[in-house]
Amino acid sequence: MAREENQLVIAIYPGSFDPVTNGHLDLIRRGASIFDRLVVAVTLNPDKDALFPVKDRVEMLENVTEDLENVEVGVFGGLLMDYARSKGARAILRGIRAVSDYEYELQMAMMNRKIEPQIETVFMMPAEAYSYLSSRLVKELARLGGPVKGLVPPIVEERLRAKVS
Ligand code: PNS
Q: How far is the CA of 80 from the centre of ligand 1 (A)?
C-alpha cells in the first residue's frame, strides 16, 4: 500500500498490561518517538490469572502515559487485526526482550500477517535494564511480598500493594 504524503502512521501496541511495567513504558516511549500516533490497546479477552480488571489496567496506563501527547489507551475484544483496521493502523508494535520471546512473537506476527497483509508487525527492544522484567514476575513478587520498586511506575506499585495486602 503506497503511503500518501502527510498521512499519519498509526501503530497499535497490544497486550494484557496486567499491570503495566517500566519495560512496557520504555517501549511505549520508544514507539511514541517513531510513530505519529500510538494506541496502547488492552485486550478484553479473559485471562484466568488476571490480577487487575481491564478498567484498572486502562486507568494505570492512562496515568503513566499522560505526558505523551501522541499516545492513547484503548481496549479491544476479538481479533487484534480487526481492531487495528478500525483504527487505521499501519503497524503493530511488540517488544522482544530475549530470544525466548521470539518464537511466540514470530508465530503471532505471521498469523496476523495472514489475516491482514497490509499491517506490519514491528519489534522493538526495551532498555537492557528491563530485559528480564514481565508482568507475571512482578505479580509473583508482589504476592510474595518481594520488592517491586523500580520495576513498575509508582502508581502501579501502590495499586499492587493495595491488591495483595
Ligand atoms: O501481553 P500479551 O498477553 O503477550 O498480549 C497478547 C495479545 C493480547 C497481543 C494477543 O493475545 C492478541 O493479539 N490477542 C487478540 C486475539 C487475536 O487477534 N489473536 C490472533 C493473533 S495470533
A: 7
Q: How far is CA 102 from CA 43, 125, 149, 151, in A?
A: 20, 11, 28, 22
User: What are 13-30's pLDDT values in tens digits?
Assistant: 999 999 999 999 999 999
Give 128: exposed, middle or buried? Use CB within 10 Å, 0-12, 13-18, 19+. Answer: exposed
- In ligand 1, which atom is closest to the CA atom of 82? 18
| pTM of the model as a whole | 0.96
Q: Residue of the nearest CA to atom 9 in ligand 1?
A: 15
The set of cell numbers assigned to 126 is 526495551
Confidence of residue 149 (pLDDT cuts 50, 70, 90): very high
B/e letters for 141-154, b = 16+ CB within 10 Å, e = fewer, are bbeeeeebeebbbe
d(C-alpha 56, C-alpha 29), whole Å? 21
